[in-house]
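Researcher: First entry.
Model:
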Amino acid sequence: MTKHEQIIKHIENLTVGQKISVRKIAKYLDVSEGTAYRAIKDAGQRGLVATIDRVGTVRIERKARQHMDNLTFGEIAKIIDGHFIGGRSGQFKTLTKFAIGAMEVNNVVHYVSKNTLLIVGNRVDVQKAALEKGSAVLITGGFDTTSEIKRMADEKELPIISSNYDTFMVANMINRAMYNKMIKKEILVVEDIVIPIEETSYLMETLTVHDVRNKSSESGHSRFPVVDTQVRLTGLITSKDIINRDAGEMISQVMTKPAISVQLHTTVASCAHLMIWEGIELLPVTGVDRELLGVISREDVLKAMQVVGRQPQVGETINDQVAKHIEIRNHQIFVEITPQLSNQFGTLSKSVSVAIIEETIRSVMRKNKKVEVMIESLNIFYIKTVQIENEIEVQYQILDMGRNFAKVEVTMESNQAPVAKALIMCQLLDH
């Protein structure tokens, strides 16, 4: 067992929550600090450890393979600039969905469960109901909660996160982060297609050309990774390397070295480029210390590229979701203010106001001028608040337009009274 493997094994045997440092690992296992550092970094990639602000590196519960691409509650807290006010020990748990708590407390139980995050304002009854169902809680508007709720969260190890952002903003920040994770998941990496070492044909560098010929005849393969006694990659040998070679020659004298290799996190697209550019049919896959983990073939890489090319990728931005609430009637633009578009006070969120104006401009320019727009500046003045379930009428006036630019004034009205005005400068883009 290599020193690297010894450190990984040592980390695996530590209790969850135990702090880890390079210096302590190096001293305890009598290894260099450089070796300890590389092993701890590898352990982080394997999901064994994590670095926490103001705490340091700690042993965490390893995520199951199917949850590796899900967000943890700790990651959510960073995304929304939030902080834990309860249940901090559950920050490494993952969530699979989130729900907005703009509903009666009796209805909450139908929308939350384990691995759910409920987004809610200053409603203690809803927070308690969510925790009882095994759901974490995100409190918007910067509100705190009661000591009873915090104690309940600590006991159940369910995080309570507080954020100063409004409900709509945090929901869309989380939605975007989850979508980004999904896109990353769809990007194939070597780990998704690697043939593990247990199923890989490889040779020891102490063997001879005669052994290569026998192995090739038995397996039907013509290319083999070559390793040392510690199963670290030292070269690659192919049928071309042993043509006209003496049967007694050592592999180490005729193999190609150093062998080009890739890591588990290398993208399949990168591997395809490398294989085509270098004319390689087989790529060894190695770890941090060049230990052989498996191989990938050119055929498998090209098949994977073909499959992923047929996969649709869909997702929504904040503006995409706002656009769903925009309705055009008799050439006029209307927006109904639903709970999803509100802040913690039950009024129209300012971030939504900006998105409504942006989408109005884009809709007008696409329809009337047949062009796309890029908004360069937007100055908005808020006049009145708009309550939930009210309707907004959006009016616009083109103040000036050139070949490549436009100045537009937008007025938002509710109950025939202005609630906001904006002046927009935008660039016109041909399709």
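Researcher: Second entry.
Model:
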Amino acid sequence: MPDAPPVEDLGDGVWSLPVPIPGNPLGFTYVYVLTSSDGPVLIDTGWDHDESWEALVRGLAQTGHSVDDVRGAVVTHFHPDHSGLVGRLRGASDAWIAMHPADIAVTAHLASVPAETRRTAIADQLRRAGFPDEDVRTLLGAPHPFTPSAVPDRALEDGGSVDLPGRDLRAVWTPGHSPGHLCLYLADGGRLFTGDHVLPRITPHVGQFPLLSEEGDPLGAFLGSQARVGRLPDADRLVCLPSHETRFTGLAGRAKEIAAHHEQRLDEIAGLLAEGPATLWEVTSRLGWKRAWDDMRVRARHMAASETAAHLRLLQARGLAARSGSDDLPRWVAVAPAQRPA
């Protein structure tokens, strides 16, 4: 786990606060603080854990503020290392919480459906994807899935202005990593808060949830979002402030690298399908991953399968693959050029 850097004054009223994610190899999430005459606004909040909350409180103190000074928080997306502390923040202050409507809908759903019900549904998806019974039993015995601590009370649409007096901070909707992922463009400061959409070294996870859903195209949306941020004004001069790793410049070039990685993966999966029909498990387990498939924990295998499913959805959208077999155990097949729609 990487050592967390110190709280840092980035100038022009912007601070970075590393908030730890205990027990996670990512180590920490950067929470950014933007100051104003009417109180600071946070970008993200961090993981829901006592250690994380204490780090956030200490970090705010180093910026000259207390928790009850916080005017509001914009959450880039609903994932727990970004939204986990919104409940504690709301309980300790009068802060508003803003998020894109698509991720507000996901958060409300997660809050309304019991975690046990969601875990059982995931286990059913794994069975239908071809996962062995051992993996399914392991998942059913694992801790409950993430349940949000609070549902945001403000919807922030694409292009919307954040309630930050004296500053021009605007939402850039970048779906893919989550349905409502937002980057935040500080037009008067030459900065882009990229959340998990663009990271300097890691390729962000893009998954299909539920695994076997035939709705949506998260990877197609993600690739479109990468192209979009690359076209922002002065994209390669912007200082990019991601939620993990380090600050960087060269946004357009990095966005192209991320897109190229996924295009390579699409080609790899299409090649596997050319060998014959395959279940989601069969495709996923035959791909190369950073860790050997046999050494991966079941949660990591589930995430890998969701990423593979997103690639299969895009291959379907491009007319390069088709889904066949029964709903109980679907398979994917390659589509020959002559069979592709005109």
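Model: Note on the second entry: The radius of gyration is 21 Å.
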